[in-house]
Amino acid sequence: MSHSIALMQEKLLNTPAPHLYSKRKSSWIMQQVMIALVFPTIAAIYFFGWHVLVMVALGIGSSVAFEYLYQKWKGIDITISDYSAALTGMLIGLSLPVTAPWWSIIVGSAFAILIVKQLPGGIGRNAFNPAVAARVMLKVFFTPWITNWVTPQPDVVSTATPLQYIGNFSRAVPEHMGHGEFPGLWDLFLGIGLGGNVGETSKLAILLGLIYLVGRGIIGLKIPVIYVTAFAAIMSIYGNFSFTYMITHVLSGTLLFGAVYMATDYSSGALTPDGKKVFALGCAILTALIRIVFNFPGGVGIAILIMNGFAPLIDKHFASRIYGHKKRPAQEHS
Amino acid sequence: MLFQFNRKREGAYTEERKSRTEHRPIEEATVPEYLMFPLAMHIGAPAKPTVEEGDYVKLGQLIAEKDGFISANIYASVSGKVIDISDQPTVHGKGPCITIKNDYKDVRAEPLFKQGEELSQKAKLALIEQAGIVGMGGATFPTSVKLSPPPGKEIDTLIINGAECESYSTSDHRLMVEYAEGLIEGIRVLVEVLPVKKAYIAIESNAHESVAVMKKAIIEHDHIEIRELETIYPQGSEKNLIKTLTGREVPPGGLPADVHTVVANVATTYAVYEAVRLGRPLTKRVTTVSGEPIKEAKNLWVRIGTPINHLIDECDGFQSSPGKMIHGGPMMGRPLTSGQVPITKGSSVITFLEKGDIVPAERTPCIQCSECLNVCPISLQPIMISNAYENGDIDEAEKLGAMDCIDCGNCSYICPSKIPLLENIRSAKSAIRARKEDK
Ligand code: SF4
Ligand code: SF4
């Protein structure tokens, strides 16, 4: 018997190289980020109760629905199966305090999907991170309803967050805050007895999410590490090298959540290797500035959004030097 | 992970599929009845036939001679009769070939020189040229040209490229394991020809066996050093190898000689040994025939001119139906649709892929994951070039460095949205070239 390929050769494909492709798909990547968000979700359920699940479900459901309806209406490809809208919704659900009214989640999703994501052309084309833009928008326009911070059960009372006591030009950590003691570092790390947005309470859960994302090769350590260390360095200097002051700032508010899940967003962040460093550094400086000077809620979100706006410029400037060339492309052609 | 923090990855960990052949000794392939010798089996001008239809030729007899500076001689790999000189299927489409009918007598022509003769440095270089040796890793650039750099570009570093980065390919690896002595002799010849003090043998760290064997073989040779390299694609590309080993970067559009370096592939070095020590011209090579559809994947000593069909038979045919037949590896190889295509000097591996492996998933929008930038070995921004091309902005594509792309395929391989990045970059390159010619 001859094994000649003659009979089969008509069926051979002759598309050009490469002939193999990695198995990774975009939708798989989005799923991985959602899985990494499960850690903070579990922590949030533990601290704030089952209502967190309702928030997350509402976020995912409304985001996916808005994307579907918009694309249906526009008569363009429906892309909800790429999990990107679902991821945005999950982030929005986790970005609000447990007292946030249900409609605020839906308003946030509509804003994120319709205005921030779909208006510029959908996935990969949005200059700003939809979930971050939504939370900042909500904070700015709906403050009385959604910055009504609460500490977790059993007695849900409105309290201030630690940030309000260490921001606004304060250079040291006070002993008291409101009616109670200022939370200890360990409590801040684990998220015990803290108010705030449900997803960012437990720093431990966020770190687990980070380990998962880095281990899976979804994000690199570059952005989170530079963001957090640069921020910590600035706070150290400002706080007269008080370790407690610095670490309290690092563990408070959205910083870690933002550094892991928001500043690392593909579409709205920088693309080039060095651009990412500059991007993260910019986030750190702006966050510190907003915290020290303005005592404004949502400083991390605003910082990231501003840097989102600069990302294309940063990429253009910091695009890598090509092998064999003397300078970066931006300098070669200027 | 940590060390990746600052450094760009500059490559991809492509799937490795070498296990079927890496421990299997090289076998001698049987010789077919008809052998085809493409006149353009090297880069540069096609060789000019020195025989005519009906001529009797001996094994090792010149059948086509180099035509110009960048060209190479071609020798008969069997004895027999020239029955045809016409266009036949080759790796690069149909092209002129000399067809020889084998008489199965292997009557040998005179060697290139008489054994025992003292050879000068010049004579050795001339022998390498005469033997028709070209880069056997696939580039097929005439070796003698590499070894005679223009004045001002004196060579100070010799790199023996044993970094076989394409999956499936193990022909260089087996050559190192089984023919270490000849290889070392080949390196000695190259060092005699070039005024270099040091020669590096670059081997990927996954090839433990060849590393071990070569380490033993170089014990008495102080001027040869083994460099184990990370197993990452495209480690074996000339430009990357030079940078990894010497820190130098070949300038855009330049050659290794511009940074005083010569890179010679392992198989090429072995051919140099056969030519300069034994007086044998280049008439055979080791070729890996592998891939899941192949029943018995093998490394074979193949006479140049043997059609691929014959090698498929040598490997007991297929165990599943192939979707692609590739001259070279899955990242950079050329797809073939005819089994009549003969093995040439640059055929290091023939890869067969299953249907399920070759069809990319549907293209989806770019998610800006920056993976294509991370894996580009020369730090391009593949997606930006691709976008520029798709927007018709050829100027921008050129500014972004499209012409520097080395066609390694990493960007298209890694893209989770399956965007045909390399295809677009290639088209951008042709557009840029076409525009230059118009001017
Ligand atoms: S742009 Fe060219 S050199 Fe860079 S990864 Fe793609 S194919 Fe390779
Ligand atoms: S790898 Fe693909 S999806 Fe990722 S940035 Fe490049 S082109 Fe876009």
From TrEMBL, chain A:
Keyword Mitochondrion: no
GO CC terms: plasma membrane
Segments passing through the bilayer: 28-46, 52-70, 91-116, 221-239, 245-266, 300-318
Superkingdom to which the source organism belongs: Bacteria
Keywords, comma-separated and alphabetical: Electron transport, Flavoprotein, FMN, Membrane, Phosphoprotein, Translocase, Transmembrane, Transmembrane helix, Transport
InterPro entries named among the record's database cross-references: NqrB/RnfD, RnfD_bac
UniProt-listed GO biological process terms: electron transport chain; transmembrane transport
Pfam families per record: NQR2_RnfD_RnfE
Keyword match Flavoprotein: yes
PANTHER family: ELECTRON TRANSPORT COMPLEX PROTEIN RNFD, ION-TRANSLOCATING OXIDOREDUCTASE COMPLEX SUBUNIT D
NCBIfam families cross-referenced by the UniProt entry: rnfD (TIGR01946)
Protein name as it appears in the record: Electron transport complex protein RnfD
Annotated organism of origin: Amphibacillus marinus
Automatic annotation (TrEMBL), chain B:
TM annotation in the entry: none
Record's GO cellular component terms: plasma membrane
One biological process term in Gene Ontology: electron transport chain
Region (Disordered): 1-22
Amino acids binding [4Fe-4S] cluster 2: C376, C405, C408, C411
EC main group: translocase
Residue stretches making up the 4Fe-4S ferredoxin-type domain: 396-425
Annotated positions binding [4Fe-4S] cluster 1: C366, C369, C372, C415
Cofactor note: Binds 2 [4Fe-4S] clusters per subunit.
Cofactor requirements of the protein: [4Fe-4S] cluster
Iron-sulfur keyword on record: yes
Location in or out of the cell: Cell membrane
Membrane topology: Peripheral membrane protein
GO MF annotation list: 4 iron, 4 sulfur cluster binding; electron transfer activity; metal ion binding
UniProt keyword annotations, A-Z: 4Fe-4S, Cell membrane, Electron transport, Iron, Iron-sulfur, Membrane, Metal-binding, Repeat, Translocase, Transport
EC number: 7.-.-.-
Main localization (coarse): membrane
Entries under PROSITE patterns matching the protein: 4FE4S_FER_1, 4FE4S_FER_2
Composition skew (Basic and acidic residues), residue ranges: 7-22
Family of the protein in this entry: Belongs to the 4Fe4S bacterial-type ferredoxin family. RnfC subfamily.
Function statement: Part of a membrane-bound complex that couples electron transfer with translocation of ions across the membrane.
Subunit organization: The complex is composed of six subunits: RnfA, RnfB, RnfC, RnfD, RnfE and RnfG.
NCBIfam families in alphabetical order: PRK05035.1, rnfC
Name this polypeptide is given: Ion-translocating oxidoreductase complex subunit C
Source species of the chain: Amphibacillus marinus
